[in-house]
User: What shape does this take?
Amino acid sequence: MSSPPSTTTPSPIPIRPASAKPISNPSSPTITRPVQKPLKRSPKLLLQINDLSTRGSHEFLSSVNASKALPSALATVLSHLYPSTSDSPVPGTRSVTLVLRTMDGVAYTTCKEIDDDHKEIHLSTSYIENIPAKRKEDEIMGVITHEMVHCWQWSALGTAPGGLIEGVADWVRLKAGLAPPHWTKKQGGDWDAGYQHTGYFLEHLENKFGEGSVRRVNDSLRKTKYNEDKFWKAIFGRSVGGLWEDYQKRLEKQLEVEEEPVIVERHSGEEPPTSDEERRKSEVKVPEERAPPSYLV
Assistant: This one.
């Protein structure tokens, strides 16, 4: 994500962290969309294409339904952060303009000069050009959904950690079933490294403490400035360091299970398979309660 101009919403944007110790890419989550809270005033959703002649502009228009892309992303964000069962008021965003233009990076969200209630999502047509064809629609919608979160989330009066802001955005993208295949849960690092790294941590909290946990995180960023110790203990009764440690232990156990070797039993004197198909047919997993043959030890 490129650095936004000076009018950006007041929260630091971290650089995507480098890969640490990856765990295999998890299967896509079940896509669920709670009923969103009705808005008192529907925002204007606008599209601005700075140069129709670029290949990225052509590929955007041919990959997604431009009239439905922004409404779909908005519905996804509101349903997960402000469902009908939530008591939290929805931010008063009045308009969101998607700006397609040539630029470095992927995308960023900013405010218009008029006031903070009018947002702009800038999406790079250069980036769109380099998305593989089979991934183009999902990636475009994933990026738009992530940026749409920034138009509607609370930020502790601009004091929330940038990693938490980005983590909430990627958590919504994850819940929408739009996680790209390269996303992985990783051990190590800091809880607020941002993006999917923090997004998966938030999903862990959602699973551990129940549905609505991430929504409570967002709600708690509405009125007061961020104080790390008070913030997390008020929501979960524990420090974020302790919550992160629990999550790391869970990932470690998952990694140990995934790294267990698969033992294949073969009769003595049997020739090893020569092709992939023969190898698959010949492999017989030894039941867990049965010890491996002595000649394999």
